[in-house]
Amino acid sequence: MTDPNAPRGALSLQNVLKYTVQHHDPNPDAAPKSETDDPERAQFLANALNAMTVDAAAALKAALVILNSEEASTDDQIESLDVIRSHIDDIDNAITLVKLGGTATLLRYITHSDNEVRESALNTVAEVSQNNVFCQNALISDKILPALAKNLSHSNPSTVRCSLYAISSLIRNFQPGYEEFKRIQGIRSLIPCLKSTNLNVYVKTAFLIASLTSIEKSVRDDFVKEDVFPVLVENLKPVEDFDIKQETTLFALSSLSRESELKLSTEKREEILSKLEQIISKNKQSETCEDMVNYARNIVDNLSAH
């Protein structure tokens, strides 16, 4: 594993290059030599390391070589993904990764059996696609969204959370991504996340729904048709202080209820309004609950208008 005290990417780069050299020796039958026994080899390694610290393309290519090798250990894979993540915050480097065939590699790794490897790959997908149309298009074309949606039913909450992060990067503010997500019934795959007992999973899901539905009415209609609103209502509680789960629930309900035909029964509508009035009355004097109260008031107004 990498030294936790080393700068991110530095030690990994060294290990990646060493591994690449070791596993791509042009004379594999020759007796192995240590770096100190072979001055020319040591100098080559030193020069290559120096070059790779500034040559992101070489570092990305070397990392992919390892990830695509059957001989790579779990530690090798994690270090290689760390190397990739240390470079792709630069948009040009993210595009280079895709051009080197990185999307196909990531598609394999987001279902890896090792939790740490899989989650690192999922975070890599999220980071490489964030605000990057070229990479978003490539990942969607390579059918990564179905695999991400399938991960949402995984038993490991960390896998679900990281998958939500990747999905969000691919579909928020990117219409082709959202259309593909809708086509593969991705909206429906979010519903189990709203029933999760894991707070982080629930909050990330509710926030994603709120973000997606807060702008376009057509998107709100998509979520309403999949009966997401009643599932969110099940989580609505009349709390007396700030609660992150309630805030994101109210945020999502506020977005979904705007100009929407919810088809609520009179009894259900009154039940919801009662909870909302309790939230407002119990928290309206608290500055930390200002957003909660505002969302609750918006829902009351929205339900009263329809």
**What is the strand tally?**
0
Note the run of SSEs as H and E.
HHHHHHHHHHHHHHHHHH
Parts with pLDDT < 50 across at least 5 consecutive residues: 1-12, 23-36
Computed CA radius of gyration, to the nearest angstrom: 24 Å
Fraction of residues in β-strands:
under 5%
What structural class do you assign from the helix and strand content? mainly alpha
Word description of this protein:
By secondary structure, this protein is mainly alpha-helical. The N terminus is likely disordered. The radius of gyration is 24 Å and the shape is elongated. It contains 18 helices and no strands. It starts with 9 loop residues before the first helix and ends with a helix.
List keywords for this structure.
elongated, disordered N terminus, 18 helices, mainly alpha, 306 residues
Fold blueprint:
Elements: H1 10-23, H2 39-52, H3 56-67, H4 74-87, H5 91-99, H6 102-109, H7 115-129, H8 133-141, H9 144-151, H10 157-171, H11 175-183, H12 186-194, H13 199-213, H14 217-225, H15 228-233, H16 244-257, H17 266-283, H18 290-305
Helix pairs in contact: 1-2, 1-3, 1-4, 3-4, 4-7, 6-7, 7-10, 9-10, 10-13, 13-16, 16-18, 17-18
